[in-house]
Amino acid sequence: MKAVPHAAEHQHPGYEIEPEKAASQSWMDRFNARFNRMFNKVLDYYEYWVRRALVRPGLTVLALSGLFLVSLAIYPLLGLALFPKTDAGQFTINLKVPTGTRIEVTDQYLAKVEDLIRHTVEAKDLKLIVSNIGVVPDFSALYTTNAGPYTATVQVQLNEPHHLSSFDYMDRVQNSMAKQFPDIRTFFSSGSMVDAILNAGMPAPIDLQVSSPDLTQIYGIAQNLATQIRQVHGVGQVYIPQDMNYPTLRLDVDRVHAGELGLTQKDVVDNVITALNSNYMIAPNYWVDRKSGNDYYLTVQFFEKGQSAIHDMADFGQIPLRDPANGAGISCGPSGAGGSGGMQPAWACGGQGRPITVLNNVVSVRQVQTPTEVDHYQIQRAMDVYVTPTGEDLGRVTSSIRDILAKTNIPGNVRVNLRGMVQGMEASFKSFALGFLISFLLLFLILTAQFKSFIDPFLIMLAIPMGFVGVLLILPLTHSTLNVMSLMGVLMLVGIADSNSILIVDFAHNLERQGLSPADAVITACRVRLRPILMTSLATIIGMIPMALKLGTGAEQYTPMARAIIGGLTSSVLLTIFIVPAAYLLVYGRRKEQAAAGLPGEPAE
Question: Closest Cα to residue 348, out of 257, 426, 285?
Fold first, then answer.
């Protein structure tokens, strides 16, 4: 785009201040000419205010520095998180019907819940519902969060794309279930693999873990803490996965009488487990089919239905106890014939063992309430309190929880720890603080080597706090949190903001070498370099707008970074173009005056 130089170019040969007039009259040239006339007016307006700011450079630097210090008051208002929430296109519901409910009744509850989900989630968005009810007493129990027949897990998957986010559907389903099924306890989570990793395997970002050998004691403490945490502003869900009131049968073995019969407590329990389930867990055995190469588990169990099955407590008391020293099997009917003829001969199939006595003769049975599960962490028994915030802000909720812990009287033998995403967030923020300090120092050293001065790097790096002002303003205005992604935006902002102030300082030094005074040099530098500063900054800001608007799948993860860059770069440009020339004149103008007056001091560059 050809253009004639500015009319004032003869005053400063070798530098084209700004083009003003087009040489031809094509539509592009007319556009350029109109744009340049408008931009020259902007430059005139900017130069007017720069000159006013340089009348009292010390006051300008002090005022803008004060603005930065005032903006720091916004920091406590910022929400803190490790990573922004992302829509995984699915969600998971852990639910509990009344404790002790049989699995058949739990299935009826779950059918109603699934019907509610189908009516709440739009049909075009709903893809799949997978439900897992109860728990099987074998190795598969390791891979389920269910703790008994009264618990279930419901996984809901949405179609891509979906009209509403998974978080909106979670809120809708949660509110509907609270109204229609108040006796069902629920805990909603995103079910995302990313969240599971960030939460360190926990289903919630905050896991308040209470540890002590006494389960009853820590359960009471956990319930007390959960009640207080529910009152905290910003807390969404509070959930204790363990229960202490599961109906159970307690077997007290008369060890003296059992010993007289040659039975140990383990023998008695093994017979009961075989009768109620099978011997798969206590005596696993398998057979290999040599023709197909397949291996099959061989298990022994009682009848599930029929006259030989266990129907009530009377049948339970008649479970036969075999002689462990006389054969390894238990027959499954009279003489192993087939299982008819009453309860007493109904031991398992194919063995030669004989019954010594029945369960009632050596065991007293009591109905008690016990924990559904006993969790451990680092050997110690532990009770968990899962806490999820209503939004992304973990910092404020965590601070409130710590205040509650400080005010709560915790016995000396009880340990309370915060686990989950909170640990990763606090560790990441500490690492970032150290990394930012090191990068700040390295940047200063590089600038010192480039400019061969210890003063110029300070002038250039004044752009950094000016950028922080915009970051501190835009994050709460856009309801974004300070997280790893927004901190990455801050790091990127540092480099871009410094490059803008380098243009002014370096060009001002060049003009000073040509004989201009510090004031004229820095004013001319600001006017000439405003165009490349705006070009660089606007290109970055405009390029970040789609990301800041969450356009595209998975854009939520990068939105805080884009917003931090946009806000920080905007404030940095607006404030740097005033504070840097003011600080430059404050330093080099005074040195020039000292050199002219013959006062001691370093010669002006």
Answer: 285
- Cα–Cα distance between 330 and 358 in angstroms, integer? 13
Question: Of the candidates 96, 395, 384, 387, which has an alpha carbon nearest to the alpha carbon of residue 237?
Answer: 387
Within 230-375, residue ranges assigned H as helices are 255-260, 265-276, 313-317, 359-362
Sorted by sequence, the CB contacts under 8 Å of residue 149 that are 6+ apart come out as 101, 102, 103, 106, 133, 134, 135
pLDDT in tens, 195-245: 888 887 788 899 999 999 999 999 999 999 999 999 999 899 999 999 998
Q: Which residues of the chain carry a pLDDT beneath 50?
A: 1, 4-14, 22, 327-352, 599, 601-605
Rounded CA-CA distance 490/493 in Å is 5
Q: Are 203 and 94 in contact (CB under 8 A)?
A: yes
pLDDT of residue 597: 56
Residue-level pLDDT at 133: 93
Rounded-to-10 torsion of CA 386, 390, 396, 398 = 0
Half-sphere exposure of 453 (CA within 13 A, CB side): 15
Q: Tokens for 41, please give them.
A: 């007016």
In angstroms, the CA 406 to CA 184 distance is 32
Sign of CA dihedral 17, 20, 22, 28: positive
Dist CA 396 CA 417 (whole Å): 17
Is the pTM higher than 0.85? no
> Which residues are 367's β-sheet partners?
249
What distance in Å separates the CA atoms of residue 340 and residue 332, rounded to the nearest whole number? 9
410-440 tens-digit pLDDT:
998 899 999 888 888 888 888 888 988 898 8
Q: What is the pLDDT of residue 111?
A: 95
Helices (H), 54-100: 57-71
The beta-strand segments (E) located in 200-325 are 206-211, 235-239, 246-253, 286-288, 295-297, 320-322
The residue among 545, 549, 570 whose CA lies nearest residue 466 is 570
CA–CA–CA angle 66, 71, 72 (5° rounding)? 100
How far apart (Å, rounded) are the C-alpha atoms in residues 79 and 445? 33
Burial of 54 (0-12, 13-18, 19+ CB in 10 A): buried
Q: Domains (ranges, CATH) in the chain?
A: 7-80+428-594 (1.20.1640.10), 90-246+373-425 (3.30.70.1440), 247-370 (3.30.2090.10)
Which tokens sit at 517?
Answer: 């005074």
Q: Cα torsion for 63, 64, 69, 73, to the nearest 10°? A: 100
